[in-house]
Amino acid sequence: MTDPSRPGDARRTVVERACDAVADAVRFFTRLPAPQAWGAAEAARRNDGVAIAAPAAGALVGLGAAAALTASLAIGLPALPAASFAAAAAPLLSGALHLDGLADVADGFGGGKTREAKLAIMRDSRLGSYGGVALALALLIRASLVAALVERTGADGAALGLIAAAALARPLAFLPATVLPPARPDGLGRSANPRKGAVVVGAALGVAAAILLGGAAAGLAAAALACGAAAAVSAIAHRQIGGQTGDVCGAAAEAAEIAALAGLVAAAAFA
């Protein structure tokens, strides 16, 4: 269906559709501004566009983290403090979207005894002890991996690695939604439902970005671990609540990004 408010919508060029998709992905995954004139007119196309353009939104977040890392190293900070600033920059740009999902999943799966209780805890905005531990570990591991990447690949290699990991992880946020049914009749887990083909294309673009920025061996290692981490989150969610929610999708992306960084660090050890 053509949106009457956008003349010629059905005849929009490939470039215009790509701009729409990137703008929608930036709005979905980040707090960064996007031109109001850009964006899909239809919900179905918007969902597919977000999945396909997810690596671009991730790359923008990764670029911000890379800038924080580079600036910190340039003023003489050691690798670990510089990596900590990079780890802080990413959630500032994304609105801590995936960290929030990770914390809610940890609280729900760790504190609930029944499926209903787990879902209720996940919907509660308060942070519990399991969620607090998950957040602390995620940030600690991320900073440690980035510091290791600085030591093994240098500042430029670590900056590129941050961009690659972020681009690779974003489309994997939709992996749970492609393999699991919604656990609730409402919420993001039901409304954010791109087609599997769009998710595959987005994931393939993420892998291509990782290979381009990190090299073939490192990019493939990062992709393998990232996909494995997202798949593991999906499997745990299936066992715990029999489906997926927006929080599960966020946790999958966060786990994938950390795993991607681990893959880059491991690959650098054998380079």
From TrEMBL:
InterPro entries tied to this protein: CobS (IPR003805)
Subcellular location: Cell membrane
Tree of life domain: Bacteria
GO molecular function: adenosylcobinamide-GDP ribazoletransferase activity; cobalamin 5'-phosphate synthase activity
GO cellular component annotations of the record: plasma membrane
Cofactor(s) in the UniProt record: Mg(2+)
Annotated transmembrane regions: 50-75, 127-150, 157-179, 199-232
GO annotation terms (biological process): cobalamin biosynthetic process
EC number: 2.7.8.26
Cross-referenced Pfam families: CobS
Pathway: Cofactor biosynthesis; adenosylcobalamin biosynthesis; adenosylcobalamin from cob(II)yrinate a,c-diamide: step 7/7
Keywords per UniProt: Cell membrane, Cobalamin biosynthesis, Magnesium, Membrane, Transferase, Transmembrane, Transmembrane helix
Catalytic activity field: alpha-ribazole 5'-phosphate + adenosylcob(III)inamide-GDP = adenosylcob(III)alamin 5'-phosphate + GMP + H(+); alpha-ribazole + adenosylcob(III)inamide-GDP = adenosylcob(III)alamin + GMP + H(+)
Topological relation to the membrane, as annotated: Multi-pass membrane protein
Family to which the UniProt record says this protein belongs: Belongs to the CobS family.
Stated role: Joins adenosylcobinamide-GDP and alpha-ribazole to generate adenosylcobalamin (Ado-cobalamin). Also synthesizes adenosylcobalamin 5'-phosphate from adenosylcobinamide-GDP and alpha-ribazole 5'-phosphate.
Name of protein: Adenosylcobinamide-GDP ribazoletransferase
Source species of the chain: Hansschlegelia zhihuaiae
Organism classification: Bacteria, Pseudomonadati, Pseudomonadota, Alphaproteobacteria, Hyphomicrobiales
Designated gene of the protein: cobS
